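Suppose you are handed a protein chain with no further information: no name, no annotation, nothing but its sequence. What can you learn? This example shows the usual starting point.
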Amino acid sequence: MAKKNYQSFNGCGIDIAEHRADDLDDKAISYLDTKEKAKVLDLGCGALGFSKRVVSTETKVVAIDVADFSHKLTPGDTIQFIQADVRQLPEIVGITDTVCQRTLHYLRFNEALTLLKQLYVMTDDRLFISVSGLSSYIGECLIKKEQNIEDRFSDLSAEGQLKFGITSPVCLYSEEEFRDLLIQAGWQIDELWMSAFKNIKAVCSHR
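A reasonable first move is to predict its three-dimensional structure. Written in structure tokens, the prediction is:
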């Protein structure tokens, strides 16, 4: 069997979704598959791994990333790709659900809160979201891991950058901090759990 070519794009770590779905992806796809009409926002889409899986459910997909992944589209794809910074989202109407995997932690705490509030307004139904946890292997390499959440945004150690392919600064969360952030932004948390790799995942809906 050929070895998978895991890549780090733009200093934002390995794009796992390009090669496989995780349990949060599966929950999102299963939920979207129950809908007659759905339009999902894949925020921080990377190389379009999730977008290409979910489009098979006949769900409309709007994929956004700060890097240009339009070259990952193939003839026949119905994915709408938009190159944009998540901190300056274009106006998109008709979004029923949003998926935001391993993206939010590349923002400062106040930026993350602003984005989650914006997504609450933009998204009619569910939010499927994940971040790397403060207690993860990545968190062990975070330079300012002992700082308060508002001041934690920082680089990984040189060893951590090399190991994880993350050269961009990050703000990592404890499970309690992530829960509080989602609630503060207005979201109702339907499920929240920590993976074996100490990533924190949540399924949220409107109150």
